[in-house]
Design goal:
about 120 residues; mainly beta; five-stranded antiparallel β-sheet; 12 strands
């Protein structure tokens, strides 16, 4: 139901824009989040956006560099990731939280998950 795409290889300081396309759920009513997981590490929160797009929430490590947005007409959510760092190499996952929810950071609060897309940042 959630398809993440847009990952790839980028040099440190570069940028990527990921996409998360939703199907089979009322996308416009769900708050959405992005998480990432590096090898040997726990999944960590990156950013979230409320169902309306009116509120966003970022991990401190990405604030000011990443921007999360959504296009409800296209059933798609996007994180624009700028000034990427090698330590941000990970599989990035999108997730849908709940209808009419706020932007939240805890993975267990999310009901639906995409398959992930690999982001590799070279130094």
């Amino acid at each position: 139901q959630l398809q993440a795409s847009g990952g790839g290889l980028v040099q440190a300081g570069g940028y990527l824009r990921l996409s998360c396309a939703a199907s089979g759920l009322a996308f416009s009513t769900y708050s959405m989040g992005w998480f990432r997981q590096a090898p040997g590490k726990e999944r960590e929160f990156v950013a979230a956006i409320s169902w309306s797009g009116g509120s966003t929430y970022y991990a401190g490590s990405v604030k000011g560099r990443f921007t999360i947005s959504r296009d409800n007409a296209k059933n798609t959510a996007y994180p624009q990731m700028n000034s990427l760092k090698p330590e941000e190499t990970a599989v990035y996952y999108c997730a849908a939280d709940r209808p009419f929810g706020t932007a939240r950071s805890r993975a267990y609060e999310y009901d639906y998950w995409g398959q992930g897309t690999q982001v590799t940042v070279s130094s």
